[in-house]
Amino acid sequence: MKIKSIIVDDEKNGRENLAGILNQYCPEIELLGQADSAESGISLIRKYNPDLVFLDIEMPKADGFQLLEHFKDFHFEVIFVTAFDNYAIKAIRFSATDYILKPININELKAAVETVVERIRQKMENQRMKELVYNISQPQNPRIGLPTSDRIEFVEVEKIIRCQGEGNYTHIYFKESRHLFVAKTLVEFEDLLKEYSFLRVHKTHLVNLKHVVSYLKNDGGILQLSNGDSISISRRRKETVLQEMKIMNKIKTFL
Fold first, then answer.
1. In angstroms, rounded to a whole number, what is the distance separating the alpha carbons of residues 180 and 190?
2. pTM to 2 decimals?
3. Measured on CA atoms in the order 104, 66, 113, 115, is the torsion positive or negative?
4. What is the pLDDT of residues 160-172, one digit of tens each?
5. CA pair distance 177, 170, nearest whole angstrom
6. Least confident of 61-70, 116-125, 160-169
7. Cα–chain-centroid distance for residue 160?
């Protein structure tokens, strides 16, 4: 499991040194970017939604604590990196938060990273249990776990517009005009989603029929979806698709 991370430090040498050590000694860390100020750090956090932030405390204009004040909910862990062993460190220690002092001791860094990685893994396991409880209580619109390269993202099934297979992977397209590339086959998704109005309309396409807005009769037929996508229906699946749409009372609208 890769831990998406960023570095926030106003000193270029400090950022580069930490990045080099992480690259060499902490292979589970995936560095997405570096920021040279609290302001640019805030932007980077909002852009990448990282799992972990390596955060310098003493920076000009705004320090690391002022950066954190911009966030009400913390979906990321923090390892403070500072050259100052002062009152701030005492506050950090009382809060049971991880920190390392400059110059960086490799063993201390590795220990801090291992602690945080375990905490992140535990949060992911806790999230899985929360989703299980939710799905048991909400059987009509469950949330499905979608495993990407570095995490599992849980989304409501009704927000999925369509799935497109690509070998052992599947592209998942959503209402919000975004998509995920997921490490599961289209066959697996067909089995999971078929009772929620999803239908295989083509060898590589699984469609949420609730998002069909029009049906074009040319060739085997084309389904136009709520996000603007057009999906061709294979000839051998046409009758099944029309029958399912008839059951959903959509067929009267289109034929």
1. 16
2. 0.57
3. positive
4. 999 999 999 999 9
5. 16
6. 116-125
7. 15
